[in-house]
Amino acid sequence: MQQYIDSYDFAGKKAIVRVDFNVPLDENFNITDDTRIRGAMPTLKKILKDGGSLILMSHMGKPKGKINPKLSLGQIANAVASALARPVKFAADCAKAQKAAADLQPGEVLLLENLRFYPEEEGKPVDVDKDSPIYDEAKKRMKESQANFAKTLADYADVYVNDAFGTAHRRHASTAVVADYFDDDHKMLGYLMEKEVEAIDNVLKNAQHPFTAIIGGSKVSSKLAVIKNLLDKVDNLIIGGGMGFTFIKAQGGHIGESLHEDDLMPEALAVIEAAKEKGVNLSLSVETVCAKEFSNDAERQTVDIFNIPDGWEGMDAGQRSLDNWKEIILASKTILWNGPVGVFEFENFAHGTGEIAKYVAEATKNGAYSLVGGGDSVAAVNKFGLADQVSYVSTGGGAMLEAIEGKTLPGVAAIKH
Ligand code: AMP
Prior knowledge:
This protein is of the alpha/beta class. It has 14 helices and 17 strands. It starts with 13 loop residues before the first strand and ends with a helix.
């Protein structure tokens, strides 16, 4: 069974590759960040170097099943061509590219139009309300058309490669269903996917202990599933950032105007109990830098986290919290970091998150494996210039979070069983 591309010889083969070219464009439709295009290059160059040809498919933005010229992938064809240093042909209808695909010669590249111009890509019924009595029938029909759409794509090529980790948590036509039309020797994960899967396995399956997870960010609700799954795996669980205040309030703390979710206080107490039962060292913040208002220039003071005065809100981790966390992080052999421990977008409240980034980098230098993933923590390590000093920075926010929640990623499972 062929799971990865490295040992496969693409000579004379047409490869249809699901890439993530969902790049941001400015108002003049210029690419403002080409990280994702660059991220796909190792896989694409390997296939071309072997003597294969490329059919590239991706989504861009959320056209919701309708043609939207502002989200046309034609706009990025030149950027892809210069990254690959060769011409790129463009198929303006991704479902009618049979001839263009058939004519493709070794070394040539064909870019398909935005897959999400077709509702079949996402496979959700269009314009039918979930509560409607015909929803189930509409869903069934859409699944059938999704399968046909996926088969159309599959028929263009000899081999399917998925290198779009950012959409690996979706069962879309191009990310998972298309794989049904290739046998096990003709579907593979690209280099980027391989690295992401390996990074997830390094923390969730093969972690060296002590294993520490640092979970921050704004809301408990968005990270509860992550926390619950990690409780069975980690030795230390550091909870910081806005979500920490729900845990403090649930224990009777006075949190002033800090961010919190009252309805999740019972869940927070259950996490505290579960951590005790499982022998996990749960380390909450003990001190916070709070502000009079939610702004960078607000008046500040550092207080005990259980006694935040009325009219003040916790915005960053205090030094006593950072000292505790530094000790834990530096003693760790595996580290998973998701979410900032303060409002790091504001210079005056970025100190705590910057310190965490430094501790994780230092532990990595001392031999720990560190994975930074899921949304804003990636922006944080980039901001502090430490991205190359951690073991791996994930490219997929939602996909990484779902993997840490313990969910199977359909894009991976379609190929690697
Ligand atoms: P998330 O997307 O859940 O990882 O949350 C990231 C966001 O959490 C960032 O925009 C931070 O500014 C925010 N955040 C972190 N700590 C706090 C806090 N103490 N109060 C309000 N927002 C916070």
